[in-house]
Design a protein that fits this description.
Blueprint (H helix, E strand, L loop, with lengths): L5 E6 L2 E6 L10 H16 L5 E6 L10 H7 L4 H20 L4 E5 L2 E3 L1 H7 L3 E5 L3 E3 L10 H11 L1 H10 L2 E3 H7 L4 E3 L4 H15 L2 H14 L4 H15 L3 H11 L7
Parallel strand pairs: 2-3, 3-4, 4-6, 5-7, 6-9
Antiparallel strand pairs: 1-2, 7-8
Helix pairs in contact: 1-3, 4-5, 5-6, 9-10
Length: about 260
């Protein structure tokens, strides 16, 4: 499939989805949202893909919404704004529930919706020149959609601090806050991302990752009893998978499994 706003390629069982609007600091518009959804669908369906890397060309990861896009939105009716908002909602939910792990490679600014894109990924690796923030409140807007995922990622207290102040934080601050998973020098960013990809594609079972992500996405809204009962059912079902049988057999025979 041909894309206008991003690049898509698969190498060594990794699908690379690369935002490609460097002149616009990889800012959102409706076309980019649509193509991101299409590319994630393609990666999830591909048998030769185990891990997805979300990255960007240029000096910025994603600076939020395109200015022309924002100007268009200001003239929308409520119904048009709702339809547009739901498109972004579906993208975030798709990424969050995707069966394959997503690693965000972040350099430079990741702001507003761009920070939201990173937030819904499973692993976030950033260069030490990256910055993160949700400045929506500073222009009279609200980070309503990403708020749901941000609270799950870092807890309500820290989420309130970021969302209410609209402040921008460094990669080191984001690491301390639990927003991201790793920080490295810009010249070592690709190497660090590759290390995570190797761990996720070779060291762990693909079906185990998919089941783990499904459990994580579902149990947080349940009470403790229902969550445990759901987990018990998933535990039992996992024992019946080919990957589990293969892994147990290798463990008993002291073999190493390369997934």
């Amino acid at each position: 499939m041909n894309y206008t706003h991003l690049d898509y390629e698969v190498k060594e069982r990794v699908a690379y989805i690369t935002l490609n609007r460097p002149g616009k600091r990889n800012a959102f518009n409706a076309g980019l949202v649509k193509e991101l959804a299409q590319s994630f669908t393609a990666a999830e369906k591909a048998n030769d893909v185990r891990v997805i890397v979300l990255r960007a060309n240029g000096k910025a990861f994603c600076a939020g919404a395109d200015l022309a896009y924002i100007q268009d939105l200001s003239g929308f009716t409520f119904e048009e704004n709702l339809d547009d908002s739901q498109s972004l909602m579906r993208l975030f939910l798709q990424m969050y529930k995707l069966k394959k792990p997503i690693v965000a490679r972040v350099q430079g600014p990741a702001l507003a919706g761009g920070c939201g894109l990173a937030t819904v990924c499973d692993i976030i690796v950033a260069s030490d020149n990256a910055v993160f923030g949700y400045p929506e409140a500073r222009i009279g807007f609200v980070a309503a959609l990403v708020m749901i995922f941000l609270v799950r990622r870092i807890g309500e207290g820290k989420a309130r601090e970021l969302l209410l102040t609209g402040k921008t934080i460094t990669a080191r601050e984001a690491l301390t806050m639990g927003l991201i998973n790793d920080v490295t020098r810009p010249e070592e960013l690709d190497t660090k991302v590759h290390e995570y990809c190797l761990q996720l594609s070779k060291d762990v079972s693909g079906s185990s990752v998919a089941i783990t992500k499904e459990i994580l996405s579902k149990v947080q809204g349940m009470d403790i009893q229902n969550a445990l009962e759901f987990a018990a059912r998933m535990n039992a079902a996992t024992r019946m998978t080919d990957d589990c049988k293969r892994g147990i057999n290798a463990f008993l025979n002291k073999d190493t499994v390369e997934w």
